[in-house]
Amino acid sequence: QKEVEQDPGPLSVPEGAIVSLNCTYSNSAFQYFMWYRQYSRKGPELLMYTYSSGNKEDGRFTAQVDKSSKYISLFIRDSQPSDSATYLCAMSESGGSNYKLTFGKGTLLTVNP
Amino acid sequence: DAGITQSPRHKVTETGTPVTLRCHQTENHRYMYWYRQDPGHGLRLIHYSYGVKDTDKGEVSDGYSVSRSKTEDFLLTLESATSSQTSVYFCAIEGSGTDTQYFGPGTRLTVL
Fold first, then answer.
1. Does residue A99 sit at the B interface (CB-CB below 8 Å)?
2. SS in 3 state form for B6-65?
3. Does B106 touch chain A (CB under 8 A)?
4. Among the listed ranges A34-38, A99-103, B79-83, which one has the minimum average pLDDT value?
5. Distance, CA of A109 to CA of A86 (rounded, Å)
6. Which residues pair with A54 in a beta bridge?
7. What is the average pLDDT value for chain B, to the nearest integer?
8. How far is CA A93 from each of CA A26, A28, A37, A70, A100, rounded to the nearest angstrom?
9. For the segment A13-23, what is each residue's pLDDT rounded down to a tens digit?
10. Alpha helices in A1-113 (DSSP H)
11. Cβ <8 Å between A100 and B42
12. Which residues of chain B carry a pLDDT beneath 50?
């Protein structure tokens, strides 16, 4: 079993839709959870960062972590064509000297005008 | 921007030739990373550095070496490039006080 599983999509939605992106993981030691957005031919850009379980909201984006289910989600409200990108989840075990991240393979999202 | 530059941004080379990719940061961060990104595999860690002259292997380190003689520069070398090393290479630095990383713009390498 892969440490982090992410549906690669592609996912195509109309403008204004609510988008739900998800990752599951197997390593119960993961405590830090991130979502990156990657536009075509660009580097990944950190979008959301959460520690442990719970929700975090930033504008149209909400990140949820359910450690009991080993499941994380990213919700995008009122999706825009500019949200079209690949979304990567990432996670790590602990702070301090261990900065190694484990990534999902990414979900390709297209928002159609 | 996270203050990371990569050079070159694009390179085409032939099998068997040596290639060096450079990552430069202006943030004075201790940790730096090299990843490769391939369709179907996502981002995979090649090597990372936790200080000047301090480096360690990642999950796909075979065929690659790294060096870090200054805090701001982290070099990735392919001693003898192979077609399987055709990929997009990303450098990353640690996020300040968090368990995150910030990525550079990438180098697209083609080995013919």
1. yes
2. EECCEEEECCCCCEEEEEEECCCCCCEEEEEEECCCEEEEEEEEEECCEEEECCCCCCEE
3. yes
4. A99-103
5. 6
6. A65
7. 93
8. 12, 9, 21, 13, 8
9. 999 999 999 99
10. none
11. no
12. none
